[in-house]
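=== RUN LOG ===
request id: a7f3
mode: sequence -> structure
chains: 1
length: 195
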Amino acid sequence: MAAHKPSQGCVSQPVTYESVVPNPKLKLLDQVREVMRLKHYSIRTERTYCDWVRRYVQFHHMKCREAMLPAEPKMEAFLSHLAVEGNVAVSTQNQAFNALLFVYREVLHAQVGKIESVRATRPARVPTVLTPEEAKRVITVMSGTTQLVVKLIYGSGLRLLEALRLRVHDLDFEMKQLTVRDGKGAKDHYTAAAA
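=== RESULT ===
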C-alpha cells in the first residue's frame, strides 16, 4: 500500500486502490479484457494474458468458474507442466504465472497462496552481439524505410515499435534528440538522435 508524502505539516493519508469489478454477465476472457483495459494495460499484454488464461482453462478442462478454485494446486500443475513437458523458458513460465495471478487477483478477486511449481531453468548463454563493422554491413544491404528504421533502432537504442511510431515532429534537430511517445510502460521519454 502506497502513501502520500507529508507536505508542509499535512498528515499523510494512505492511498487505497479500488479493485475493478468486471461485468458479471461477460465470459471470463471478456472480463479479463475489460479489467485490463480499465487498468490501461498494453493491448499486447492483454492478448498474451488472454492466451495464457485460455490455455490454462483448456489444460484443466474447466467448464465453470467454480472449477478454477482452489487456485494453488491448479496453478502449480499448469506451471509445472509448462516447465517439464512444455520445456518453456523461464520468462515464458513467468509470463504465464503473472497472467494467472492477474486473473485470480484482479478478475476473480481470489487470494492466491504460495505456488510451489517446478521452475524452468535458465541456460547460461553468452549474448550474440554484432560488431560495429558487422552492423554497418547489415545496414548497407538494406534500403529505404527498412534501412531508416534499423538505423534508428541501432543508433538511438529504440525498440521496434518506438521506431515505427515516430513522427516528423518527434525529431528535434537543434537539440539532436528524439521524443519517444507512448514507449514502454506508456511513458514518453527523450533519447539522443543517431549521428
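=== NOTES ===
The radius of gyration is 22 Å.
The chain has a mean pLDDT of 86.
=== END ===
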